[in-house]
Specification:
Oligomer: single chain
Structural class: alpha/beta
Helix content: 25-40%
Radius of gyration: 22 Å
Distance between the termini: 10 Å
Number of strands: 13
Number of helices: 14
Strand content: 5-15%
Strand order of the largest sheet: 3-2-1-4-5-6-7
Order of helices and strands: EHEEHHEHEHEHEHEHEEHEHEHEHHH
């Protein structure tokens, strides 16, 4: 079986990491997978990027033009939106390739136009890493206008125009949602409500991502190896994204500090700010860890990972933490309940109740060594039993075969 996975990048962004991991898992399962990307940074088997300098420059120019047009046409000058204006040469490649299945992931930045997607002449699977496919131009929506096609209002609306193009051009797509939350959003969507949707989580290599000795992990990262609990937070530019909840993190940590709880903070994904960051406790900044081994060690060094998002699907950071044996603390939003078994592999608080989250985090940090080992074991078990490569690749292969009606 031959499958073409399509994503803008092979390594930049959460969707890229998820697509790359699925590609690797499929290859190990003996499925011939190709990962077709615009932006290729990795030299790995089966990854096919845009080869000519002219084509790369054309894609960059179209992506820039698309951003300019979106800012001009959006009432809020929105940078976090995509309209998929321009036709792509990738469509012809997909239709002419020997692949039996086309599996889309994050195809914005003018990877494919809305019209291109409707012209793919093979069974299409689409793993949705955000809300863009079911909404208008935005990748996440906090309101409900996407449920009525943005029909309210008489002025020109970029969201309404983009949504209308999707309605006219799309159909016959098999949707994959990494979380039950996003699957329910798809079922509520007028665009996709009549299309089949299944839940298959993002994969992770549990042989590579594994628990490490905390003392050794801290030593490698240059963090003092004392008994003060270490809370980690993966920023990845999240401080500038309201939906990632860095303000909620700050409030929760302030409350935790006022409770008298001793802890330190590990901030992954950004450099130490000149002002010190404004945290109430000592903060360690290992920077942006491109090396998965170092990121694995960062999780292993931590007593828990905070994911304070206001809206999220199934963040890779959470799957990575579980594989590293690190419990998670979060709010009950989006796909977080698919990641965290409250009281076993972490804790979940009512949405945006920082007092409750701080209290639950304190209970986790003050637990005895036996209880902490139980939670670490539960976290690791969740990763092995639900997100490991063999399980996720098998679910995808079953789906592909059902679309092709092929026996084993």
């Amino acid at each position: 079986m031959i499958v073409d996975l399509v994503n803008y990048s092979d390594s930049r962004g959460g969707a890229a990491r998820a697509a790359l991991r699925l590609h690797r898992a499929l290859l190990k399962s003996a499925t011939k997978s190709r990962l077709r990307v615009v932006e290729q940074q990795l030299d790995e088997a089966g990854i096919q990027g845009v080869t000519s300098s002219f084509s790369r420059a054309t894609f960059r120019a179209k992506a820039k033009a698309g951003r300019v047009l979106v800012r001009a046409l959006s009432s809020k000058g929105d940078d976090s939106a995509s309209a998929a204006f321009f036709r792509s040469p990738l469509l012809r490649q997909l239709n002419r390739s020997d692949a039996e299945i086309v599996h889309l992931h994050w195809v914005n930045a003018e990877t494919l136009s809305i019209e291109d997607i409707g012209k793919i002449q093979k069974p299409v699977v689409w793993t949705m890493h955000d809300m863009w496919a079911i909404a208008g131009a935005r990748h996440y929506e906090e309101g409900t206008r996407w449920k009525n096609g943005y029909s309210d209002g008489s002025r020109f609306s970029l969201d309404r125009w983009v949504w209308g193009r999707k309605a006219r051009n799309w159909g016959g797509i098999q949707v994959v949602a990494p979380s039950n939350w996003l699957a329910e959003m798809v079922r509520d969507s007028p665009l996709f409500g009549d299309l089949p949707v299944c839940v298959i989580p993002n994969a992770i290599d549990t042989n590579t991502w594994r628990p490490h000795c905390k003392v050794e992990a801290k030593k490698t990262l240059g963090i003092p190896s004392h008994d003060i609990p270490l809370i980690s937070f993966v920023a990845m530019k999240g401080k500038h994204n309201r939906l990632k909840g860095s303000d909620l993190l700050g409030e929760t940590l302030r409350i935790l500090y006022q409770m008298g709880q001793e802890f330190e903070l590990l901030v992954v994904g950004e450099s130490r700010p000149a002002s010190g960051g404004g945290w109430p406790v000592t903060a360690h900044y290992p920077g942006f860890l491109k090396d998965d081994e170092l990121l694995n060690l960062a999780y292993s060094a931590s007593d828990l990972l905070m994911i304070p998002s206001r809206q999220d699907n199934l963040p890779n950071t959470g799957v990575e933490a579980l594989a590293s044996g690190t419990p998670i603390a979060c709010f009950d939003i989006g796909g977080m309940s698919d990641l965290v078994d409250d009281g076993r592999s972490g804790c979940i608080a009512k949405p945006f109740d920082c007092n409750e989250l701080a209290s639950k985090v304190r209970a986790m940090l003050e637990a005895g060594s036996g209880r902490k080992k139980q939670m670490a074991f539960a976290a690791r078990s969740e990763a092995e039993n639900r997100f490991s490569e063999p399980i996720v690749s098998a679910a995808h292969n079953d789906l592909y075969r059902s679309l092709l009606r092929k026996p084993d």
